[in-house]
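Students often ask why inverse folding is considered easier than folding. One informal answer: many sequences map to the same fold, so there is more than one right answer. In these notes we will look at a single instance of the problem. The structure comes first.
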């Protein structure tokens, strides 16, 4: 059978059983029990696991803890075989077993950047956190864990890698140890230009794509309370009375009551003035699906004003294959 699948004559069977189904290694070995490669050969041949990168959900320099957000990746193959992502289901199970994650709701509908921002249904192993969101074809688990046991200042700018030991207060279980490192800082930072705090910004994120913007807003909150931040009269388009530029956030998910990540945090930022405007798109709460790109079109005049008349900055965080393309089309 293996010879048939490897031949031109077996192309149809290969496409149906391998190319479409995409079995994992264990599935392949189970389907072909005569194939028994030496373990040493397997270890030498298999590629190393790639690191998973997650955006920090807060301004680390303002806290003694860090927060992450990630989707729990589950999906079913065309033949109905349950599949799991590599990292997020494992980390959720480990954190739950140690009492670090506490469920917040049951039976929530999946919310993911890939599925909810432009209609793509491919699974994503997305963003790590205080808030744990699920992206799956089954009921999702939403929970949170405290990283209060992580107090190392090296988390802000670790020299190479840092070993985190996570455990719940009073727990008797063995702490979970994770090796983490920071990726070289990119241009995706706030403020966009040094000393240019008066430039307005538009942030667009869906699902766990909201993660880095929580850090932006915490930074703005600190600047709002800084004595060095100049004050200016409030305008009709803003609730602030500081020298900070406007900050608009477009956020999308499926359901407000089930998938609205960090809702309380965002409401506080609105009340305090670090966030000027919050525009939400809940795609499953009306007959026609509404995504963040539709909301951009609804507020096209303000978007144009901020980007082209006031030289503002635009940040997008989410699924590049789906949501980002939809946003790009809306902007064009």
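Output (designed amino acids):
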């Amino acid at each position: 059978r293996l010879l048939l699948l490897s031949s031109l004559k077996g192309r149809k069977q290969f496409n149906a059983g391998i190319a479409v189904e995409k079995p994992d290694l264990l599935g392949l070995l189970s389907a072909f029990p005569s194939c028994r490669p030496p373990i040493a050969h397997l270890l030498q041949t298999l590629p190393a696991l790639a690191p998973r990168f997650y955006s920090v959900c807060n301004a680390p320099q303002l806290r003694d803890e860090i927060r992450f957000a990630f989707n729990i990746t589950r999906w079913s193959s065309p033949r109905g075989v349950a599949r799991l992502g590599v990292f997020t289901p494992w980390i959720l199970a480990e954190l739950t077993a140690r009492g670090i994650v506490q469920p917040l709701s049951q039976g929530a509908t999946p919310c993911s950047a890939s599925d909810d921002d432009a209609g793509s249904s491919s699974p994503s192993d997305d963003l790590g956190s205080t808030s744990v969101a699920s992206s799956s074809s089954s009921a999702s688990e939403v929970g949170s864990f405290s990283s209060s046991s992580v107090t190392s200042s090296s988390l802000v700018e670790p020299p190479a890698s840092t070993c985190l030991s996570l455990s719940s207060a009073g727990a008797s279980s063995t702490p979970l140890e994770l090796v983490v490192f920071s990726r070289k800082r990119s241009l995706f930072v706030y403020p966009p230009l040094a000393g240019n705090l008066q430039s307005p910004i538009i942030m667009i994120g869906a699902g766990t794509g909201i993660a880095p913007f929580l850090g932006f807003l915490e930074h703005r909150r600190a600047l709002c309370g800084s004595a060095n931040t100049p004050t200016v009269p409030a305008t009709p388009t803003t609730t602030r009375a500081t020298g900070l530029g406007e900050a608009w956030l477009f956020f999308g998910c499926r359901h407000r009551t089930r998938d609205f990540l960090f809702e309380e945090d965002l409401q506080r930022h609105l009340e305090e003035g670090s966030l000027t405007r919050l525009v939400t798109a809940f795609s499953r709460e009306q007959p026609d699906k509404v995504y963040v790109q539709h909301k951009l079109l609804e507020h096209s005049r303000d978007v144009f004003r901020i980007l082209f008349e006031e030289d503002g900055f635009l940040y997008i965080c989410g699924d590049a294959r789906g949501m980002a393309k939809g946003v790009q089309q809306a902007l064009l």
